[in-house]
Amino acid sequence: MSVMVARKKVVRKWEKLPGRNTFCCDGRIMMARQKGIFYLTLFLILGTCALFFAFECRYLAVQLSPAIPVFAAVLFLFAMATLLRTSFSDPGVIPRALPDEAAFIEMEIEATNGTVPQGQRPPPRIKNFQINNQIVKLKYCYTCKIFRPPRASHCSICDNCVERFDHHCPWVGNCVGKRNYRYFYLFILSLSLLTIYIFTFNIVYVALKSLKIGFLNTLKETPGTYPSSLTVLTVLEVLICFFTLWSVVGLTGFHTFLVALNQTTNEDIKGSWTGKNRVQNPYSHGNIVKNCCEVLCGPLPPSVLDRRGILQQEESTAQEGSCPRGPGTQEPPATQGSGQAQEAPSVLSPQVPAPSVSDTEMPEEKQRTPGELPVPSPDAGRAEH
Question: 307 with 25: CB under 8 angstroms?
């Protein structure tokens, strides 16, 4: 006898999310699929700081102050924490419309635009929204089937609409949006300070050694039995910090300018508020302090993806089993009579078999011909007594 058993398989929502993202730790970590440059970022930061702590810090702590490696460690830990927070978080991805919602939006658009004559281009799908007495256009996303909120844009790399989209940063391996922009800004700011700090004390280290043994002897000095290794490592640190200064410090200054204006990189590149029409930025408060407080200190909105929410899928599996029966017993038929046969033993005595519904269901009784009287069985007489 086969029995159908329903088993529930627990599936998390992040397993069914569209888009080109990578999830780790059961949906707790969310990144882009292209993570090669992010690993390069980790290698450069960890490698440069490891060389600084291994060689220059020991000498500077003895000659100048033990606070030098302590402050460097604080900057390093803060930069790494903000980097991982930026890379592993949801930047503000907007969920795509469900099929019913998408069909309803399409029906509304068709009802508004009407029928378009053949050969003519349909009008753009745009809604007007007013912010601070200024009209802002909400554009329709053909991939997500939604009207994007103000300042949102669709990332072509991650294939998601991101709220307050700033840009996609391959160095952090994620999009930069409403939910992780402040951590991105703190990361580049702390990395700029760390780079300037290491670059400065590398020069101080070379200057202090040159005062004692001369500049040429400082470059030729070798630790242990590894010839010229200290010189090569010091020059490598200086080169990495020098080229990092131009890029990271310049990027920090650019984003400081954007924060002061309450503007995004995407809006600055497109010239949304500095075009020929000279439309003022409706999101700016006209005050640098208020803009900085809103961008960096405002409340952080929760993620609307619910990545670790549970979706239950039922799977039916067939299992074979046998019901124990004594000798001479018969499997009850799968009809309405089976319900009556199960209720009979509760009324009759256990020694008396339950009466059958019809004469054809009694194998031990002889079938009678029409007009022949039924022959009582011996058990029936004992049951009456």
Answer: no
Active site residue 169: yes
pTM of the model: 0.73
Which residues, in sequence order, are CB contacts of 133 under 8 Å at separation 6+? none
Torsion over CA of 350, 352, 357 and 362, rounded to 10 degrees? 120
Q: Where are the domains of the chain?
A: 44-94+175-297, 99-148
User: Burial level of 294, CB count in 10 A (0-12/13-18/19+)?
Assistant: middle
Sign (positive or negative) of CA dihedral 42, 78, 175, 283: negative
SS3 158: coil
Distance CA 106, CA 258 (A): 36
Return the DSSP state at 159: T
CA angle 209/210/212 to nearest 5° reads 70
Paired with 134 in beta bridges are: 131
Tell me if 112 sits within 8 A of 97, measured CB to CB.
no
Rounded (10°) angle between helices 288-297 and 181-213: 100
Catalytic residue among 158, 169, 175, 241: 169
Q: Residues 295, 151: contact at Cβ < 8 Å? A: no
C-beta atoms surrounding 81 within 10 Å? 14
Backbone angles phi, psi at 33, to 5 degrees: -75, -30
Q: Which residues pair with 114 in a beta bridge?
A: none
Residue 251 confidence (pLDDT): 94
Residues in the chain: 385
Cα–chain center distance at 174 = 10
pLDDT at 83 over 60: yes
Per-residue tokens: 324: 């124990």
Residue 224 gets the label, from left (phi > 0), alpha (psi -120 to 50) or beta, of left
What was the pLDDT predicted at 104? 82
Q: What is the mean pLDDT of the chain?
A: 76
Two tokens, residue 113: 């635009």
E strand map for 183-253:
none
